[in-house]
Design a protein that fits this description.
The protein is α+β, with helices and mostly antiparallel strands and about 220 residues long. The protein has a 6-stranded antiparallel beta sheet. Helix 1 packs parallel to helix 4, helix 2 packs across helix 7 and helix 3 packs across helix 6. The longest helix has 15 residues.
């Protein structure tokens, strides 16, 4: 993957917080695991991350209900869809072991397209650095934000945040579709979890998240 300011933002936060170790784990997983995750393997709700050099996982994506499309969030456009075939970056993929939850998360995320932005501050870099520095556990702040987003849906509005980073949307979509007392509920602070921390969480919960493999840059 080519260098970008987003990779720099993540890299700075990860280096300062000591999460560089996670990046090394991600790169080792990508390079030495025999599983492969190609476009033909994609299913709705799959979560995959771009892999970049020493930074590890840097950009989160979800496979759309139309498995030929992916959903992500980028500076300028916010939440969008693009063809899976247009994403040529190296990547690693994960699948929640419940196809109904996965389909529902993908459908919810699709409703955010064109409606949810990325970030208005520092071209998005501030939000990325915050994700790297913040505590990623599902604490009081995360619970409050999640309930706020869910309550918006009960009023007939879009059940979503106003802005979301790429990794944040992958976790939030599932949190808004899975009951909090369900063992499959992602116990992370979506806003404060960098892609590397999300990957580590998924790898630490193999009974919930199936590691699908790696595909090199094309």
């Amino acid at each position: 993957m080519a260098f970008s300011p987003m990779n720099l933002a993540y890299g700075l936060a990860e280096r300062v917080t000591g999460a560089k170790e996670i990046a090394r784990e991600v790169n080792a997983l990508a390079q030495y695991n025999s599983l492969t995750y190609n476009d033909a393997d994609a299913e709705p709700g799959d979560v995959f991350f771009h892999v970049y050099s020493e930074a590890g996982a840097t950009h989160g994506n979800m496979v759309s209900p139309d498995r030929t499309q992916k959903i992500d969030s980028v500076v300028g456009a916010g939440v969008r869809t693009i063809p899976m075939a247009a994403d040529r970056h190296a990547r690693i993929g994960f699948r929640l072991m419940d196809s109904i939850y996965a389909q529902n998360a993908a459908l919810l995320l699709l409703s955010w397209v064109g409606q949810v932005g990325y970030s208005s501050g520092l071209g998005g870099m501030g939000r990325q650095i915050h994700a790297g520095f913040g505590a990623s556990n599902f604490g009081k702040g995360a619970v409050g934000r999640l309930h706020k987003y869910a309550d918006r849906g009960t009023d007939g509005n879009l059940k979503a945040p106003k802005n979301s980073t790429c990794g944040e949307l992958c976790i939030l979509a599932y949190q808004l579709c899975i009951p909090e007392n369900d063992p499959m509920f992602p116990k992370l602070d979506a806003k404060h979890s960098s892609p590397n921390r999300i990957v580590r969480y998924m790898l630490a919960n193999p009974s919930v998240w199936d590691y699908l493999g790696y595909r090199g840059e094309m």
